[in-house]
Amino acid sequence: MKRFLRRALLAILGLWLIVTAASLGYNAFTNGTATPPPGLKFVQTGDIKTRYDTWGTTGTPVVLVHGAVESVDTWSRLVPLLATNHRVYAYDITGYGYSERKAPYTVERLAGQLLEFLDAMHLGGPGQPRPILVGHSLGAGIAAEATLEAPERIGGIMFLDGDGLPLPGGDSGVRRVVVPPYRTTILRLVLGSDRLIRKIYNDTCAPDCPAPDVDQWTRPFRQPGAEKAIWQMTAYGIPAVSPDRLAHLRDLPIPKSVVFGALDTNGGNPTETATRIGAPAPTLIPHANHLTPISNPTEVAAAINTLTPA
Prior knowledge:
The chain is an alpha/beta fold. It is about 40% helix and about 15% strand. It has an eight-stranded mixed sheet with strand order 1-2-4-3-5-6-7-8, with helices on both faces. Helix 1 packs across helix 6 (about 180-190). The N and C termini lie far apart (about 80 Å).
């Protein structure tokens, strides 16, 4: 028995050495970074250099706050529709897209970046127009926290495919279980698989979504510091607001709206969300999943137009 256990231990040790050496070799071979697309615009928001874009010249301002693994580019099908009646603003949350990556990635920190972005765009201050915040998925929690911190600056808020709450079960512990160098290898294998990226996209979007631009989704995660930021973000979990704090939105006299894809199982419960924040009954977009700004931009634009003042 001792001989068997010794042999088994040596075999496990040998396999570990082989896997570790392969992981280290793969990581060294794939250690390059990608250049950002040309023509990006940046603005300083506190201590973060933030990538952003704007559209439209008149109307109520609308600020778009994207979700996890998304960026300004996620709104590309929606903004042309909104820009006919609104001044539209979008930015990359630190940790995602092409904004400078700076920890900690807590909801308070990310709400601070949003409020600094409003300052940079001259929105919500004394004598300035108050914007409508549209938070998609993870962005709903960031928009909610910013609204709770500075309600006098906000003209309205929409929860789009997101409830603003922590994920059920809290921290998954992935960061503690999957350690270097293996987590780097796993991440790069995922980013390098166009087939897997398309499957994730198709599972999250509606059946009639346009084909994904894989490079648009993966290039931000090949920027310097992106991998480090991913694992730092997992230490804090999904930035979100506690149910008790979120319920304070009910007391704020601003327009509120909840819009979900009817097939969405990732963003939470839309009816409970509307009740919690004091919004009217939610708008459910038929046959839509979690990426409604991509799959159903016309319906999302119409919902935003309903929320904004005439």
